[in-house]
Design brief:
The protein is an alpha+beta fold. It is 37% helix and 12% strand.
Length: 155
């Protein structure tokens, strides 16, 4: 059931609503229902697939952390961009997390007026991932999503 409209989710791209002020999973909703809920992080899986309890726990912890990092054009904002890039192809991106780092570093060459990163971006990114994995392991959510079982609407 959709967290917002309370109707069944029968297709499309279900959206998981995640807390940004504290690590929590609010619920699941239709993509058309959840886009106005700005106070939560939104995760849509493309294509709809399966998320294990461990993957959901990882997302909960990751969203909380990257919403509390400096933004894209702020000082040291690249760390947040690396975390966001990791989500774009989640969960497949967990197999090669440093690809997100490489992608952000490659794009960084095209930015005008970029600020220097204070510290070691690769080390900070790996530290962030280890903190997220540790927090996800210590605070399991216990919820899994199987979007494959939803009938897909042909458009």
């Amino acid at each position: 059931m959709c967290q917002i409209c309370q109707r069944p989710i029968q297709g499309g791209r279900p959206t998981i609503l995640l807390g940004v002020e504290k690590p929590l999973m609010v619920g699941i909703c239709h993509s058309t229902c959840g886009y106005r809920w700005f106070r939560y992080g939104h995760f849509q899986m493309r294509p709809p697939d399966y998320l294990s309890s461990e993957q959901v726990s990882f997302l909960v912890q990751l969203y909380f952390r990257f919403y509390n990092l400096p933004g894209g054009r702020e000082q040291n904002g690249e760390l947040r961009l690396c975390a966001v890039d990791l989500v774009r192809d989640f969960p497949a991106s967990l197999g090669k997390p440093l690809e997100s780092l490489k992608h952000v570093c490659a794009e960084r060459n095209y930015w005008h007026n970029r600020l220097p990163y204070h510290g070691d971006l690769e080390l900070d990114f790996l530290r962030l991932l280890s903190e997220v994995f540790k927090a996800a392991k210590n605070n399991p959510i216990g919820v899994e999503f199987d979007f494959r079982s939803l009938p897909q609407i042909k458009r």
